[in-house]
Specification:
Oligomer: single chain
Shape: flat
Amino acid sequence: MKTKPILAALALAVAGVVMAATPSNVIEEVAWMIGDEPIYKSEIEQAYQDMQNDRIPIVGDPYCVIPEQLAIERLFLHQADLDTIEVQESMVQMQTDAQMNFLISNLGSKEKVEQYFRKAFPDIREYYATSMRNRTRVQQVRSNLTKNLKVTPSDVRRYFNDLPKDSIPFVPLQVEVQILTINPSIPRQEIDDVKARLRDYADRITSGESDFSTLAILYSEAPEGIRGGETGFMGRGQLVPEYAAVAFNLNDPKKVSKIVETEYGFHIIQLIEKRGDRINTRHILLRPKVADKDIADATVRLDSIRTDIVDNKKFTFDEATSHFSQDKDTRYSRGVMVNQQTGTTRFEMSQLPQEVARAVAQLEPGEISKPFIMRDPKRDRQIVALVKLTSRLDAHQANLGDDYQTIKDMYENAKKQEIVKDWLEKKIRDTYVRIEDGWRGCEFEHDGWIREK
């Protein structure tokens, strides 16, 4: 990528005229040259369209902002080549599968995805795979550049003390919460009825009377039902163990699995395709319905547990979670809820499930709510819960005592941006860059792109 006489001459020759014709004999216009890597006008247009589709805001002229972003990506990818950074291909394929499944789910079918993008499905898939592969390699380069950053408490303190008053963030109300949940009992007859329906579907599919995907669209309670029950390619670790154990043992796409029970309900599964250590399946999910009486019984039971904690002092809330809670994510950690967005135990009220937030709003620290019904956000079923408000931190301007981690994160991010910016500007200076006429009249974020002749 560094400027060399032969390379520079070649780049000038290529950039000064036109690029090779594509298979459709459309001449590609070169907008920028970064070393010996061209940035085509068509790339810029495609990136602009993608950002509009994803509603990504563009600050400034898109025909200035986007080419610079693509040029920066080229510099990072060149460094990735020098550092021999490889991407785990199975991870790229998994992320690509997820993206394609998302597109199919939102647009309705593969054919509609092709119509929307005006490309064949394999071409769309390869475009996303390349984008994800490049993005992962760029992230790894950035990580390598900042991996040796060391932060001490005195650094954080000095950074905070030097912050202008209007730059100190305002921290909204935050709470720490413990939860204890019980799943209402489901009558045996309801489970038997669900299994009977699934056996009927399996018989109709096996006999050729009905198509699996049609029945999934009509009857499955899984989100994938809308696209015929198809999960897309997934690795064993992405599936719940009970589902994976059966799915990965299927070999005949014409057959239907036995009934499989998971935490989400009861399934029947059909193999579509195996590809290495990943599998694509269809499934029909039915969930046994919880009766009002069973919810009432669970509420009474949980109210009794609350009485034993609050009035009878038989045990603490912490002890009750390990003995009675059926929330597998929290029962062995004293019921402490963890914010998946931040990885901490603090929640803004908007980050809590709505039912939990309503209950917590009525509590003082140390108090326990009355039992309430909520929908398990992971498993989409009704459960009964108690919550304890462990602590409340009122809205305030950040300070080192209460918000050290927040301020430390701010300092680390600022230092990382500084390290990357310095590296990038040196990389720009050391690299041959040519911007064609018509693409030069811009105010770029970084200096050094345009040089005097």
